[in-house]
Amino acid sequence: MDFDFTEEQQAAVEAAKAVFAGVAPDQVPSPALTPGAVADDFDRPLWGKLADADLLSLLLAPEHGGAGLDAIALCLILRESAKVLARIPLLETSAVAMAVQAYAPAELSAAILPAVGRGELVLTVGANGRTGHDPAELAVTARQENGAWILDGVQTGVPWAQTADLIAIPAHTAEGHTVLAVVPRVQDGLTLADQVSTSGERFAEVHLDSVRVDHRDLIESEGAWEYLRNVLATGTCALALGLGEGVLRMTGEYTSKREQFGFPVATFQAVAVQAADRYIDLRAMEVTLWQAAWRISTGASGALPASGDIAVAKIWASDGVRRTVQTAQHLHGGFGADTDYPLHRYHAWAKQLELSLGPAAAHEESLGDLLAAHPLG
User: Fold this and answer.
1) Rounded CA separation 129/135 (Å)
2) What pLDDT digit, counting tens, does each position of 177-197 carry?
3) By the number of CB atoms within 10 A of the CB, which of 32, 135, 339, 356 ranks highest?
């Protein structure tokens, strides 16, 4: 077995590191000091650099101008982006593009994907349902009327919705079938109510009141929404891993320089043990992440469906990133809460990632249901 990343995946990581090298986590106002969103838009200049480096087209098939890489490559890039808190809709745009490529009719793929790869189209997705706790596909209804589809409902906590070009909306039909609509942000019957995430980013509550969607903009293929949701959850784990690694590195640098009684605090056993525990958390987050990404990329079978591995990865990501930032705050002392120091930003982002698409407890429940439905012999 060869567990190394491919040359193409490693090249993507190097390109991502070069692009993200100039990103400062504190280049926008602090969420702790800002009553609303930290900015009206995401980092457009950075988005342009990603497009110029061909990192937005990596996952697209060659016929759409891409390199044909997989979910593992996406997670590698997301990992690097989170180390510097890059404010870009990379996960949302890439996940929707992957779902469109895998499940949409050729006409829709051709209309969207090349422009995505060039950085000209930004995509997002409503994945939190009406409240953030109910299944997203049940929050919106879809019915056919006069040769089109009509959508009604609400999706809350939609990231970057005010500045995205297209929003992917899961919905359910009267027959219980789940469909995925790709809806323009500016559309009759679609309204956005401003929300602010824990990390200070601009989110939206998307209201759909008899929004009319053409047949060619709706994906009816079985499994499209489940695939998109799995990619989103796995990508969130990659972001949590990158953020945790960035925080642990900051903590190591700080405790190596901070002295008490004439010695760096990093040499104290109590400090070293706590840092070691968080290192173990990060390694567990990493191995479960790559297992989940591998299942998505290869379609390999296992004792449980791929959603089982994804649930395990999200459990570790949610708990692990929370423990990592909490330990970092503790080892930094009062300095960690100083808003002139970026650690508090990482803490806010970590809380957002911990709860995104469900906290650890929700995925533990899902894993229990899978184990009950698929007894391990």
Assistant:
1) 6
2) 999 999 999 999 999 999 999
3) 356
Helices (H), 21-67: 44-52
Band (321; pLDDT cuts 50, 70, 90): very high
Question: What gap in Å lies between CA 10 and CA 311, rounded to an integer?
Answer: 26
Rounded to whole angstroms, the Cα distance separating 86 from 78 reads: 9
SS3 (DSSP) at 235: helix
Residue 334: band (very low, low, confident or very high) from pLDDT cuts 50, 70, 90:
confident
Task: Kindly report, residue by residue over 285-300, the tens digit of the pLDDT.
Answer: 999 999 999 999 999 9
Helix (H, G, I), strand (E, B) or coil at 181: strand
pLDDT at position 214 is 95
pLDDT of residue 336: 82
Residues in a beta bridge with 150: 143, 212
- pLDDT in the model for residue 6: 94
Give the integer Cα–Cα distance in Å for 224 and 109.
Answer: 14
As a whole number of angstroms, the distance between CA 200 and CA 74 comes to 24
Cut 0.85: pTM above it: yes
Nearest to 319 by CA among 364, 256, 253: 364
Q: How far apart are CA 9 and CA 18, in angstroms?
A: 14
Give me 110's structure tokens. 């051709």
CB half-sphere exposure, 272, CA atoms < 13 A: 5
How far is Cα 239 from Cα 80, in angstroms, rounded to an integer? Answer: 8
Q: What are the structure tokens assigned to 102, written together?
A: 């895998």
Q: Do residues 291 and 271 make contact, with C-beta atoms less than 8 angstroms apart?
A: no
Residues in the chain: 377
Q: What is the pLDDT of residues 41-77, one digit of tens each?
A: 999 999 999 999 999 999 999 999 999 999 999 999 9
Find, among 229, 374, 223, 363, the residue nearest to 303 by Cα: 374
Nearest CA to 183 among 167, 170, 165?
167
Token pair of 235 as six digits: 């990508």
d(CA 121, CA 114): 9
- Site of tokens 């090298």: 21
